Amino acid sequence: VAEFDVQRYRADFPALQRQVHGKPLVYFDNANTAQKPLGVIEAVDGYYRRHNANVSRAVHTLGSEATALYEATRDKLRAFINAPSRDEVIFTRGTTESINLVAYSWALPRLQPGDEILLTQMEHHANIVPWQLVCERTGAKIKVAPISASGELLLDQLDALLTPHVKLLALTHVSNVLGTVNPIARITAMARARGIPVLVDGSQAAPHLRIDVQALGCDFYAITGHKMFGPTGTGMLWAKRAILDSMPPFMGGGEMIKQVTFDKTIFNELPYKFEAGTPNIAGVIGLGAAIDYINALGIETIRAVENDLLGYATEQLNTIPGMRIFGTAPGKAAVISFLIEGVHAHDLATILDTDGVAVRSGHHCAHPLMQFFGVAATARASLAFYNTRDEIDIFITALLRARNMLL
Ligand code: PMP
């Protein structure tokens, strides 16, 4: 990606300009949360400075400005995921809330003893624990689709698990640990052939891939704003209108009603039925700015730049003695989990930090995946388009220094 002027884009991210322990920050923890461009920071700031008012309730000028800005993000999200209608785009605090919304409003009333929720070995706890909670209440069970040593779903085995007992298949689009990009369209076709709805956790896909929920053929799609350069506490659930219409509200309160008496409440129409209370207005407006940023840069450019970085980082890592990389699926996203033989991931991350290099160490909210690989933790370098080959060189030098200190 020769013509990509990364310095021009890095200038948009104030946090990337800072130093850590006297060294330039090398931020390789993007799968955890991404840094924010000025456009996002200014959108949040501008809302509080100029437009601060509650949404949908007030007829005064600030109220209508705030509402217009807030609702504009819904249109941007609709286009971003190619949803058929803005009414199907529900604002949430993030993927965790989106999945809980589906678990409690859609699954809980439907599940019975003997029913199954099919997950995969590579799910984040956010796509495991809500299902366990509703299974405990209903007597339904969780089944798990297996993966290969390279970190890819075994599609034949997944297909065999799609029995009539399965009421929902819930899986991640991109693994936050392995970087694996799951073939969602193929998988939804398999599930659809059996009449099984599919929920996709798009947390790690949204910052890296073009998302088209209609082409993917899923029934639910969840994303979180902070990993796609937007503010924390923002996100979205998309679901097909017929499904959303069939679901009771998740939370009750203001905004989600048409009429309330003490006997009965008539719920508001979509999407407001699922949006009780005063939302994270500034955050949602900031998320709109994040989508503008991604669109201006182009998701294809992002993918190409990250692919180049992934190839270079993988090649360099593999020169380090004792290196083990978890997740080697072709076409994977720029997430690299690894261990150096004899070195604890936390020690590694701690020493890297003294060189200004931020990587995550731990279980990455994916205990079952760690168990599959037989490790307690890994170190994880997750890249964004604003990272550079020079930063990868600094990272590799820091790793070699840490390895020498620790072995
Ligand atoms: N799913 C995946 C795959 C993730 O990586 C994350 C965040 N680490 C989540 C779900 C949860 O997202 P949030 O904490 O923003 O709700």
TrEMBL record:
Enzyme superclass (EC): transferase
Native organism: Pseudolysobacter antarcticus
Biological process according to GO: cysteine metabolic process
Domain Aminotransferase class V positions: 26-395
The organism's place on the tree of life at top rank: Bacteria
SUPFAM superfamilies to which the protein is assigned, alphabetical: PLP-dependent transferases
Cofactors that this protein relies on: pyridoxal 5'-phosphate
Any Pfam family the entry gives: Aminotran_5
Entry keyword set: Pyridoxal phosphate, Transferase
Xref: InterPro entries: Aminotrans_V_dom (IPR000192), Aminotrans_V_PyrdxlP_BS (IPR020578), Cys_dSase_SufS (IPR010970), PyrdxlP-dep_Trfase (IPR015424), PyrdxlP-dep_Trfase_major (IPR015421), PyrdxlP-dep_Trfase_small (IPR015422)
EC number: 2.8.1.7
Entry similarity comment: Belongs to the class-V pyridoxal-phosphate-dependent aminotransferase family. Csd subfamily.
Name of the protein this chain belongs to: Cysteine desulfurase
GO MF term set: cysteine desulfurase activity; pyridoxal phosphate binding
Protein purpose: Catalyzes the removal of elemental sulfur and selenium atoms from L-cysteine, L-cystine, L-selenocysteine, and L-selenocystine to produce L-alanine.
Catalysis performed (reactions): (sulfur carrier)-H + L-cysteine = (sulfur carrier)-SH + L-alanine
